[in-house]
Amino acid sequence: MSQNKDLKKALLAISSFTLVFGIVLWVLFSVLVMIGVSSTGLLRIVCWIMASIFMVVIMIGLIVCFKRLNGIRRQIMLNNIYVKLKELGFTTEEIDDRQKVFSQQKLSRLKNTSRKLSKYIEEKRQTK
């Protein structure tokens, strides 16, 4: 479970970085646009080119950060499923076989699997 705590810290760090990164570049973009609108000649062209470059950097940076966030969320879900399967009494080899299948699934499907396992574990506890 400490691995999940480390992953959650990484999730928080990346999302905080994404927010700060986006805000700073957006402010720079806005300043360049304001300068570009109010100026003339070569300065106007340079400002618009720099603003366009900043916009592309913002978009690429946000896409990369969100992909990392999804990767971390996926790993947290896989760890949760591993713990739940272990709790149900599966052996490590059986869990590894299932993890190969789970690692190919989408995040929403992993969440549903985790919920179903939780319900099954809860029902099993209540019947004991």
List the defining traits of the structure above.
128 residues; mainly alpha; transmembrane; transmembrane helix; membrane
Could you walk me through the main structural features you see in this protein, from its secondary elements to its overall organization?
The chain has one domain (2-127). It is mostly helical and 128 residues long. The longest helix is centred in the middle third of the chain and has 46 residues, at 42-87. Helix content is 90%, strand content 0%. Helix 1 (2-38) packs antiparallel against helix 2 (42-87) and helix 2 (42-87) runs parallel beside helix 4. The chain has helices at residues 2-38, 42-87, 92-102, 107-127. The mean pLDDT is 81.
Q: What is the number of E strands? A: 0
In DSSP terms (H or I, runs of 4 or more residues), the helix count works out at: 4
* Computed structural class: mainly alpha
Strand content: under 5%
Mind describing the biggest β-sheet? none
Keywords: Membrane, Transmembrane, Transmembrane helix
Transmembrane segments: 12-35, 41-66
Secondary structure: elements and pairs:
Layout: H1 2-38, H2 42-87, H3 92-102, H4 107-127
Helix pairs in contact: 1-2, 2-3, 2-4
